Amino acid sequence: MSEELATNGLTLVVKWSSHEYTIDSVTIEDTVLDLKKAIFKNTGVKPERQKLMGLKSNGKPATDEMLLSKVDIRPNMKIMMMGSKETDIASVDLSPQDIPNVINDFDIGDDIELGNIPIQNREEFLAKVDKRVKDYKIKMLSEPRNGKKLLVLDIDYTLFDHRSTAECAAQLMRPYLHEFLTIAYEDYDIVIWSATGMKWIEVKMRELGVEKNTNYKIVFYLDSSAMISVHTTKYGLVDVKPLGVIWGKFKEYSPKNTIMFDDIRKNFLMNPQNGLRIRAFREANKNRDTDNELYYLSKYLKKIAKLDDFGSLNHRHWQRYLNQE
Fold first, then answer.
1. How far is CA 49 from CA 46, 61, 67, 249, in A?
2. d(CA 225, CA 5)
3. Contact 310, 304 (CB under 8 A)
4. Tens digit of pLDDT for each residue in 16-38?
């Protein structure tokens, strides 16, 4: 604990739901629970529903009863928070069949057209992809490997239950995550693409133990600024993840060797042939013992890795393909 912090008290910045809140009503003699109560006054998220990312003491997650003087913090430190207001939770049915978006994702097919031209072939949307290829700066975490296919993964509800509360991120991690990534890495370069900011991605990957895992490597992260907006006749403007951004930057990857997992099908509108809609992982405390999606998808990835071209696959029927001899 620095002398400055001990002398001047404690001011922290909490980032939640795309907003930042300055918390200056606690001191180092208060507890983590006192901090959560102060955050509640600013955000409306109850203490028991708050998850403060990266708040640790001696490398371990800080507990509610711990004094802030014992927590690894610094003046004006920015803390990422996850959690929902009671009113928001009450208005959402969190059953696995529902998608937490205004758009009814089940009604979005792979053949959406604007006029007579499929979404993925519209010149104005392809121009947006070209602009992302030119302007989006990628920070490389590892180098592409010769002859490997490409696996692009979403985070929220795909690898991680970002809405539930827990003492540490590992409790919200989808079962079999590290085993899945280890197996996939044998045949695929791995990219993480989340519809959030880069800071959130880095925090989540660090908390989940993905960032520096010795059994596999991530090539790079993509955040929301790599996405584009497309207009659909039925649903209006929606944001999507065009794989063309990656294909335009890396000659190693193409529609023939790329597959993307996401729990929201609309993200595939610019590349419907390459998207596999994974079942959303929610309510981790209740479902972590029975969820085996990544276990079976690792087998699917291993099986299709033998193919030279993914163009003939229908990923909607991946379970049927997996059961074929």
1. 5, 16, 20, 40
2. 35
3. yes
4. 866 889 998 888 888 999 999 99
Could you tell me which residue, 34 or 91, shows the higher pLDDT?
34
In whole angstroms, what is the distance from residue 248 CA to residue 152 CA?
15
Cβ neighbours of 6 (radius 10 Å): 12
CATH class of 105-322: alpha beta
In the predicted model, is pLDDT for residue 212 greater than 60? yes
Q: Indicate the pairing of strand 258-262 with strand 149-153.
A: parallel
In the chain, domain spans: 3-89, 105-322
pLDDT band for 104, please (50, 70, 90 cuts).
Answer: very low
Q: What values do phi and psi take at 203, rounded to 5?
A: -65, -45
- Measured CA to CA, the distance from residue 138 to residue 126 in angstroms comes to 19
What's the CATH code, domain 3-89? 3.10.20.90
Of 186, 268, 278, which is closest to residue 227 (Cα–Cα)?
A: 268
CA 123 – CA 165 distance, rounded (Å): 43
Residue 324 contacts by C-beta under 8 Å, 6 or more apart in sequence?
none
